[in-house]
Inverse folding.
């Protein structure tokens, strides 16, 4: 196996590194040096994706690279932060350089598309796992948090739900057509960065849907000290989901399946039209799915059934 | 096993979290929000410590927690950066809560001692591994880098060498007296943060010694485009090292053993006294061990023998 230094030099330094805005010193020293914009807060988060826990080990390497960055960027999206930099901690079991080149291509492509500079890395031997730290910037006071939802707010989600769980189910059944919309949703989720930026100063609260709508809704409600009533029939189901899973399982996937990486927001009803308009400019829908209430807990869904799915899904989420 | 959320809440949120300087929003949302000091550059680095690769899995949990943070902080020390924040990505195989409590105690104690706030975490299942991202601050232009060494500079090291490799050798022989100075050096290395800060505006270049003096010296020389002559007899050997390993192996450990986490600096001869004086105020020695030359390569040591040890040591470094 090539040494850590060789691997870092070959695959973790982006092709077009050079001098980049906000990076006085990139990969290659003990630390990278970054120049934050004056007067901003930094938003930082870390997520680790482990083979056969968070993604199938035999998924395409390019998708694994894309996905590992996407799930971390999704946390920046949920805060309305602008992505700037990332660091990758990669654990690798073998030295398949074709795999590594494809993995790096997926990672760097999303770096480029999202305006995120890879500024540092670390390679160790072990079970395949990718830890990605992301750093973004936000104007103080404008960050979206989980704790601002208020009684009477509308709850709304970007895009569609259930595609992550639906895609995983198809993959487990042996579907390998990467153009299938559900596989695309599962393997190459799109972090809703532009949506998060557009929702600043409109939404009271936001969270990204990584653990499933109900689970993440509960986090948001708990942080805000409120409850909610959902309208399950309003859930925007992913394309092809009912065909793939049947109607009941499709709704369960939308409620409880993980890996959707859409945003769930709480916003005043009178701002819903403006929010929908801003997201429509990005080609993205925003669908109202319920309302916030002062009374704690979630009403309108059969939580028992939901938790059953959560449990079944536990090994993969 | 407790859920990720419960584990994070119980062990990865420091006891004395509350509102801390520079942390408008800590653990518990999609991202933490940080307020960097105006006019500073950020120094960032990530290091992953894997059980039975970077440390013995049966080492004391408190030492594992300390060590995982120490090796990352050592990168900030090498840049002369002031530590501010860190994020931990923890992979855990089982749910031994006593172990986790001791691990967290080791980690949080060093957080407190170094002025580093833990602002985010991620827990996954897998082989025990700890990825720590550290963020520090440095005045633009004052960061120590690897690339500034000049012909005629003195090379010097903080503290003593070989203790990391010597401690590992003792551990492998079954020594378990944690008060043994070599075990202490190996299991609970002290990142030279104050030394790095004191050497700003004195040293031309710096690197931390994590892979062994010779290996890290080569990184520094390569980045600076220079060579060096070492004086092996000048190497400051760790206390008890010759007694534990014998003279020849002791010198090899000092030259090629990893895990010392001392600083290697290159500085003008006329600044050596001032540098020694500043470090003496911290109770730390700075020992000249050679000189920088224009001619590439390292002279004065038997590299062949050195590489032999490096190879033997490869599995543990």
């Amino acid at each position: 196996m090539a040494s850590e230094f060789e691997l870092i030099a070959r695959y973790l330094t982006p092709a077009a590194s050079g001098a980049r805005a906000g990076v006085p010193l990139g990969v290659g020293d003990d630390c990278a040096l970054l120049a934050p914009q004056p007067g901003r807060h930094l938003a930082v988060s870390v997520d680790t994706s482990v083979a056969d826990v968070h993604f199938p080990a035999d998924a395409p390497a390019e998708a694994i690279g894309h996905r590992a960055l996407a799930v971390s960027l999704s946390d920046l999206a949920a805060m309305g932060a602008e992505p700037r930099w990332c660091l990758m901690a990669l654990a690798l079991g073998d030295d398949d350089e074709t795999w590594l080149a494809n993995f790096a291509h997926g990672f760097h492509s999303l770096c480029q598309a999202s305006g995120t500079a890879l500024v540092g890395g670390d390679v160790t031997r072990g079970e395949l796992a990718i830890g990605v730290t992301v750093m973004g910037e936000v104007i103080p006071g404008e960050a979206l948090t989980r704790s601002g939802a208020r009684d009477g707010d509308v709850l709304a989600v970007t895009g569609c739900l259930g595609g992550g769980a639906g895609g995983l189910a198809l993959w487990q059944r042996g579907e390998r057509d990467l153009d299938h919309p559900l596989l695309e949703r599962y393997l190459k989720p799109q972090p809703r960065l532009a949506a998060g930026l557009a929702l600043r100063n409109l939404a009271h609260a936001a969270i990204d849907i990584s653990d499933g709508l109900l689970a993440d809704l509960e986090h948001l409600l708990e942080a805000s000290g409120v409850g909610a009533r959902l309208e399950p029939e309003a859930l925007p189901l992913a394309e092809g989901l009912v065909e793939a899973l049947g109607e009941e399982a499709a709704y369960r996937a939308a409620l409880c399946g993980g890996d959707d990486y859409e945003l769930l927001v709480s916003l005043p009803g009178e701002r819903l039209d403006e929010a929908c308009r801003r997201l429509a400019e990005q080609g993205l829908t925003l669908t109202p799915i319920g309302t916030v209430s002062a009374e704690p807990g979630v009403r309108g869904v059969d939580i028992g059934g939901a938790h059953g799915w959560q449990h079944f899904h536990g090994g993969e989420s």
